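Task 17 of the worksheet. Students: predict the tertiary structure of the chain below and write it out as structure tokens. Keep your answer in the requested format; marks are given for formatting as well as content.
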Amino acid sequence: MFDAAGGESDWQNAYTSANGLNDLQNWELASNVQVNDPMQDIGTDQNTQNETAVIAFGQNVIAIYRDSNQGVAGNGEADFSNPACVPWWPPTVPQGDGWAVSRDGGVTFTDKGTLPVLSNAVVFVTTDGSSTGYFVTTNMGDTADAKLDRDSTSGTIYFVANSQRPSVYYPNGTNQAGRLYAPVWRSTDKGDSVGAPINATAGSLANQYWDDYIDGPFVVVDNFPGTGQGDVYLSFLWIHNQHDLVLCRSTNGGLAWQVIQQIAVICGGNVFMTTNHEVCLGWQPSVDCSHRQQPYTNTLYIARSNNRGVSFYTTTVTHLPSNGGTNHFTRSISAPSNDLFFGGVPELAVNPANGSFYYAYYDQPASGTNRPNIYLRQLTNAVDWSDPIQVNVEPGGVATDQWQPAITVKPDGTTLFIAWYDRRDDPTNHYLMRMYGAFATLPITSTNAFGTNFAISTATFPPVFSGTHTNAGEYDHVYPPLADGISVFCVPGWFNYGAFSGYMGDYDRPFSDNNY
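Model answer:
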């Protein structure tokens, strides 16, 4: 209902509550819609879905996510450092990403299963963790970090994800150089189906070693009218003897790709579009790849290109110094000091109407507590970043943990939305979490722009995403039901304080359309 006498003319915008949300938003947040098919999780507590991304157009909503149901322990990578481990190689090709489609504005979803594999690929299998081993012909799958974007003119939807580890295959014979596999899938029927994967780096990168792999892919489409409309850009981190950010471009609807830029020795980054076909790369220094062991430097590099990615100019270096906050979080206030998990990464969003940048991150305040808040900084003049604005509200002034921000801007440029994980509902134990969110009207001119926070999750939940393993430093690992106990202990990084021992694995990406 809406109050016509009070000047309301649209039930979608009617406001009869006191929490800053209209009645439609209150109704929608009263329950959360499950996207994946729950029947696939029956029979084991080791299944999980996370690392989500979503797009919406009209009444169509497409979500993509990491799904451990068809994954393989360790993303396909074997570990020979433990003498108890026999030479192990996954007999099942990982298909670790799924997607689901809604045709009724997100009210109901149909689980579409997993993405197609790269068929008949020749890969190298090590027998001792070195270059000693053998070649096999098999299929190559995908594992995590799935993203998607849509060409608003042709309707083609592009899906990307990490390939299995290692990410190298040998299409030209085992006596020739390997090729890094960075898969892109295309859908031309609004997400009902996707075609076979296309390798965006085929023939473009040289000297791939057998154990190289990709990480953190991003895909964006240039949807601005004029020259460059329909171009598709893919960025990913090439992890070999160093970390390089690689940018690929397709000018024919994703059917063929070229590597057009490579930035060496950096941390994770991604490609994004601003206005008028300007393509940008954002990344962090290599020291921030050690975020599980030390605080972020909170330095952000941005390079711009006005010639469709051929060259970049005016690299903007933005120093956002941390107040000393950590990227590690304890399971609870009573947990051992080494029972930690990783709290995610900062996120950048662009205003599609005017090209302004918005950077959301978490850090402890300058004084008073070491429990982090969510902060926003904005770049509206292409020169100077604003001072930090605190996004979350601390009820009663009680400091609790907030982390893992996700940020998006409404396409008409009028509204900014940020969501994050929050422990305000468990101020005593600092254990249970809940997702919260906030809107801000653009442009932001006040430090109180996010004064209204609202709960998104319908209930609090513990920091456990799968499994029942609770040893300190070995944080609730995500591994598939097909992995036996021996295989799990032979997966690199899961145990003995390895790289994944403090890994929660939740990199979520929001999306806006002009309705929401």
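Marker's comment: The radius of gyration is 23 Å. The chain has one domain: 31-489.
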